[in-house]
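## Example record

The block below lists the input lines for one assembly entry, exactly as stored, with component labels intact.
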Amino acid sequence: MPTAGETDPAALARRYGLSKSSVRPPLGAYLQELWSRRQFVVSYAAARTYAMYAGARLGSIWQVLTPLLNAAVYYLAFGVLLGTKNGIDNYVAFLLSGIFVFTFTQRCMTEGSRSLALNLSLIRTLHFPRATLPLAYVLNELNQMLVSLGILFVVVGFTEGPAWSWLLVVPAMLLQIMFNIGITLVFARIGTFVSDITQLLPFVTRTWLYASGIFFSLPAKLAEIDAPGWVVQVLAFNPISAYIDIIRRSLLEEHEPNQLPHAWSIAVVWSFVMLAAGFWYFWQAEDRYGRG
Amino acid sequence: MAVADSGAEPTVIADRLDIIYKVIAGQGGKGTAATALRRIMKRQDRPTIREVHAVKNVSFTAYKGDAIGVIGRNGSGKSTMLRAIAGLLPPAAGAVYTGGRPSLLGVNAAMMNDLTGDRNVVLGCLAMGMSTAEIQRRYDEIVDFSGIGDFIDLPMSTYSSGMAARLKFAIASAKTHDILLVDEALATGDAEFRVRSERKIKELRDQAGTVFLVSHSLEVVQETCNRALWLDAGVLKLDGPVEEVVAAYIKSTRG
Ligand SMILES: Nc1ncnc2c1ncn2[C@@H]1O[C@H](COP(=O)(O)OP(=O)(O)O)[C@@H](O)[C@H]1O
Ligand SMILES: [Mg+2]
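Predicted structure tokens for the full assembly:
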């Protein structure tokens, strides 16, 4: 007769060193495992880019066309029709930098929120750290962002000529990538369990778009409507505004009067906080992705 | 069953396992942002969400050297149970304990259909944790085993279901496994591939501690397994030596 302790499955499992099959590894081990799958992230992202453009006749030319068409629409709407450009000398470069930086984060959020739901069957078939999927999506968007940045360099190069301050684009970009990884991980988890978020996100991001000073200079606009001084201080905490501002500081010399206060510090803090919070939040549910 | 006195070392323990799928039935994705917002604020599920209780209160213990056939009618929860053992489908209640990481060889192994066969080979192997060097070394062997031939550089969407199954099986079996779960991996292939993959499974079984095999062919189960689990509508109806369980199963389908 087996004793009570031995018939208890959990005790038996412990005695023979068995572990729960769907269990969340400790955060450190998880990050290590994630690092060991970096090649999968890169290959998956490449495969997705390839699959995305495989059907279109113009193929990957769309990577260049899409941001240009986007920018053209906004230029017509805000620069020409609404005349927001008054006071900003190089409005094209001003607008492009804003749109590209914003689109990078926005696409990471919206695409990332579906990164697990769209790969449910892969998740239910193979073992791999689930964070690889949202990370691959970020890599896709980064790829697009680098193309957009190339366009931006050409535009600024023609209108203002190259300058040493361009080098600051590198740390600015790194900070935004950190932020985007974090926010993508957060929305990847939310999107898996609250599928309605996919419908809601476009409205959230559109609101964010208008609050971020992409079409107009925030300080100039606020001065125009006689807003109190603290308003610009508050608006400057918007991470997107900060990332846009540090890119503009790096590229546009005459941006000085339109600068937001403390943009670099705010960008740095957002990046580190968001990155850490994103990994932590995503990892918390690692053993639950794949449940229907 | 005397769990403690058998002397053998357990490799898989299922302890009152329950698996529930949540399915969005009906019109699904439609609806305005306002209704979506209201739903989220009220934290209420869609009225059209249905729960499918696929595995109900299943307990068993598998030992080293066991080859266990899993039989039952379509939709009785066989695939679901294997996914739970593999740790791919988190249980709603209960637990599965395993020694090491079980590997699931199944026909439903999802690949990227827009991509060519060779890209799928590389991606699948990377996801399983193989290194680039290892994949380069094994690549020819995998493609040879799949028997896909020249079609390897065409998109997988152009493959027949049998061809896709062969490639997936070849990819998944490229790794060595401690606990091997085989889910009808042999069903869709032609006769020649079936012979080859059965040999492969025997080979894998010799290396592995424990094998679970789902197959519609009761002969294959009887040939390869020493023990069988009979699932009926998610409930474990019988667990015992393979002849006994298969005989009881056949009797119930005739009766
Ligand atoms: N992905 C899924 N989503 C929702 N329900 C599912 C899913 N897969 C299987 N089911 C349901 O779970 C039950 C068991 O299915 P399955 O495990 O595939 O059975 P079997 O492999 O024995 O044929 C069935 O009722 C089926 O409808
Ligand atoms: Mg099945």
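Chain B has one domain: 4-19+56-254. Residues 191-207 of chain B form the longest helix (17 residues).
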